Amino acid sequence: MSERSRSVLWLRKDLRLRDHPALIAAAEAATEVVVLHVLDPADLATYGESRRAYLAASLRALDAQLGGRLVVRSGHPEEVVPAVVREAGAGSVHVSADTTPAGRARDERIAAALPVPLVTTGSPYAVGPGRVLTGGGTPYQVFTPFLRAWAEHGWAPPAPEVEPRWAELTSETLPAGTSTVPLPEAGELAALERWEEFRTAALADYPVDRDRPDRPGTSFLSIALACGEIHPRTLLADLADAPPEAAASFRAELAWREFHADVLWHRPDALTDPLRAEYARMEHDEPGTAFDAWCEGRTGFPLVDAGMRQLLATGWMHNRVRMVTASFLVKDLHVHWTHGARFFLDHLLDADLAQNQLNWQWVAGCGADASPWFRIFNPTAQQRRFDPQDHYVRRWVPELGSADYPDPIVDHAAERREALARRERMRP
What we know:
The protein is mainly alpha-helical. The protein contains 19 helices and five strands. It has three domains: 6-123, Rossmann fold; 125-158 and 187-266, Serine Threonine Protein Phosphatase 5, Tetratricopeptide repeat; 277-426, DNA Cyclobutane Dipyrimidine Photolyase, subunit A, domain 3, CATH 1.10.579.10.
């Protein structure tokens, strides 16, 4: 087989066959395409058990689309990818860009180790991180002007579908995975069906219902986006026929995802360090019994407990409730945001590094376009406003009102004053 008769499409967080520029590039480069996924132990070590199980389910769905031709290999990509290239006699390796700090460093190492070109085409975003800059050529620090510039920049239409000839290569047995939560149906076809159902029904009420955990008002596509089972460009294209207010609201939520990826592109230290340097002086309490109560959904604040129990039971939490639970940990319990971020990464099926870390920084007041420190979510007020009939809370906290439900572990008003006092002491 000649050197250029095969190419390798190395899939990472782009587990789909449609709207896939890297797949198109791989198909144009050779007559047969080897579709590869590497089970990298370094990556898998950062996944919670249920997230690993969902990844396994997504790989099985993709393999079915490929007629059983997905090649899965375990090991370090620096060793596995060159080995597959040699075995296949491939002339190029094609990827979608991994824009995380670790992913960028890994791809640089692999490009240097490969005997053939590593070709990067496209990314998991409508607009690749680093492309939207201010008039002065600097990154945006505030979301609203980023949103305007991002929309003005625009994005390509969905990539056309291609039907390559899939190469056959020996694969390991596809992983099975064991989940502690019921998994939603995985894979590209399920994601497209979910999007169609949402777009033709709940999208019209999205501007209001997206904040209501008691209503099925969100798309539930965050898991599919995190795995790359669907591309945001596909969603953006379909918004053209949606009601204008609903389209603008959903588009803005996608833009938040792109904003956080852009911030992390420019500031890789944001994974652990506050973007606002002065917050390194903030006083925090070490995690203890109160942190354990937060993790278990036993704080005595029904909306907080409902959210944490939803997370533990399903691997997902409503976005409004994510903000409330995060604010409670940082500003009522005074625990450093990184502890909560780690807990979320361990349990969320839709765990996305940039989204997770920078959303936590937003709530903690130390990130880009951060929520001001004095904005401290009152869990009781949030419950009255966004779950007025207690439907969401009672679903996850059925013992509410009985002797089995704990008393509040803190006085919210007192802890709010303490949080504001710590903010004042932090100032130089």
